[in-house]
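Next up, sample data.

:::
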Amino acid sequence: MERLYPETEVWETCTPYFETRNIHFYVNKCGFHIVEFFNAHHPDLHDPEAGEENNYEGEDFDGMFRFEKRMK
């Protein structure tokens, strides 16, 4: 994908925190960095009252990592 879109400056992806194989792949094999961890206490920056805790839907949501890879 990187060769198909050489003008891309930042790649971004997300994966659930419990998917350790995905985390290993993105960080150790692809060169991504973890930049954010979404969880029940994570502030919703899109909320007009910034700083409020996010109300994620569903009991199954335990957290998610956001990764970034900055290109040269």
About this structure: DSSP finds one helix and three strands in the chain. The beta strands are 10-16, 33-38, 64-70. The CA atoms of residues 8 and 71 lie 7 Å apart.
